[in-house]
Write a structure and sequence with these properties.
Blueprint: E1 2-8, H1 15-26, E2 31-36, E3 50-61, H2 64-76, E4 81-86, H3 94-99, E5 102-105, H4 113-132
Helix pairs in contact: 1-4, 2-4
């Protein structure tokens, strides 16, 4: 299953960008990171079947093992792509939230966009190591 991170705005050459690259290179599942302009445009090309996960402050605070279990279940059910979407500065619209398969939050705090992207990539790496039985994640 392809893990597809879709984010508004450019991360550029920054400490957060280095973290994103580091974890992107460690993930053993197919992974793609797409940067879109800050405003407007389509989220991604249509692919089915896929699941859309919006990073959103109203989302579920999901533990790493639960995220791993969800991804593993989707993969085993034949889902070809999991799209993790980080919105623009104003977040996601009500329509986008309603259409998403999952809303995911990193706790109750509001995180800067660049940090959220780095945290997402680390969590995807952690989730895939959990599925693989690798000792990176120690519960």
């Amino acid at each position: 299953m392809l893990l597809h991170v879709i984010a508004r705005g450019k991360i550029g050459r920054s400490p957060e960008g280095e973290l994103v690259k580091r974890y992107e290179q460690r993930v053993t599942w197919p992974i793609k990171v797409t940067e879109l302009p800050e405003q407007g445009g389509r989220t991604a090309d249509p692919v089915t079947p896929f699941r859309t996960i919006l990073l959103d402050e109203r989302g579920e605070d999901m533990g790493s093992e639960d995220l791993a279990a969800m991804l593993s279940r989707w993969r085993d059910d034949g889902v070809r792509e999991a799209r993790f979407v980080l919105g623009a500065t104003d977040g996601h619209s009500g329509e986008e939230r309603a259409a998403a398969d999952k809303l995911l939050a990193f706790g109750k705090a509001t995180w800067p966009h660049l940090m959220a992207r780095a945290m997402l990539l680390e969590q995807l790496y952690r989730a895939t190591t959990i599925v693989a039985g690798h000792p990176y994640h120690r519960a």
